[in-house]
Amino acid sequence: MELAFKKSSKKKVFRKRAALDDEQEEDSKVVSASQLKKRKSGKTPEDREDIHIDENMTALGVAFKASGTAMELGNDSATRTLDIDGAEDIIAGDQAEKLDNLYTGKDNYKEYINKKKEKITQKNAGGIRAGPLKGQTNVRISCRFDYAPAICKDYKETGYCGFGDGCVFMHDRGDYKMGWELDKEWEEMQRKKAEENDPNRFFVEVENEVESDDDLPFACLICRGDFKSPVVTKCKHYFCEACAIKQFKKTPGCYACNQNTQGVFNVAKELVSKLDAKKKRMKEKELEIQKQMQEEE
């Protein structure tokens, strides 16, 4: 008895499965085949694209994905605000005081002028009590200090510019003074005007030729006479040389301040030079007086 089976009329589709690594291709030349089965899925084309991208990124070992919650930042130049004083609902007044949540005493809340409960803004600032006001938020100030004038540096220094007439800077070889130079000239001009209007500008001041010697003594503290070979100690006291040595034999202390001199007495060069200049001036005055007396006779 023979059995007969009916062959299926569906054609089978086969595909070649590629090896993962090149080494596996060299080792085995066997190609495996598998039957493709089409299955229906309820996913949309957008979901399929996302799955395809995720599979590729997973194969590379790198995955990036956005949360999708970020808001688009538009160009709001016309409505943008600059709030540096705090939110609009937090202003000077009752609302700002309530934020501390601290009781600082009854006297600290005493008000000497009437205070309104409404918000303090630029519009109603005229009729509200004195105090800091919230600045406007729709005003943005930009400041630029131009320390370099728009003058072509090459043309000013050399008289030649490689850009020619197409240079965006001004071709001028004139000298321009800086602000501090103009201020200095103005102050000099005002000083000259003040000197011209001064009624005492023609007065001649006679300088005193005699140098002030108030810091130097005019006589010895020991002998109470004029200096003879003056010397000075470490404590800046002046004596005659003979008087200082005689006093040191009695006691090593200074005659003026009782400080130990250690036997050190230096020549008072400054005092000697001033005494010599004083003697010279006295002689000159004596000669002038003698000449005047002779002329009168």
TrEMBL record:
Which residue stretches, if any, does this entry annotate as coiled coil? 268-297
Q: How does it assemble?
A: Associated with the spliceosome.
Family membership noted in the UniProt record: Belongs to the CWC24 family.
The GO molecular function terms of this record are: DNA binding; zinc ion binding
Domain named C3H1-type is located at: 146-174
Specify the residue ranges making up the C3H1-type zinc fingers: 146-174
What ranges does the record give for the region Disordered, renumbered to this chain? 16-50
**GO BP:** mRNA processing; snoRNA splicing
Which PROSITE patterns does the annotation name? ZF_C3H1 (PS50103), ZF_RING_1 (PS00518), ZF_RING_2 (PS50089)
**Which SUPFAM superfamilies does its entry note?**
CCCH zinc finger (SSF90229), RING/U-box (SSF57850)
The answer, when asked if Zinc-finger is one of the entry's keywords, is yes
Pfam families tied to this protein = zf-C3HC4_3, zf-CCCH
Cellular component GO terms, alphabetically? U2-type spliceosomal complex
Its annotated compartments are: Nucleus
Q: Where is the RING-type domain?
A: 220-258
Which PANTHER family does this entry report, sorted A to Z?
RING FINGER PROTEIN 113B, ZINC FINGER PROTEIN 183
Q: Which UniProt keywords apply?
A: Coiled coil, DNA-binding, Metal-binding, mRNA processing, mRNA splicing, Nucleus, Spliceosome, Zinc, Zinc-finger
Please give the function described in this protein's UniProt entry: Involved in pre-mRNA splicing.
* Protein name listed in UniProt: Pre-mRNA-splicing factor CWC24
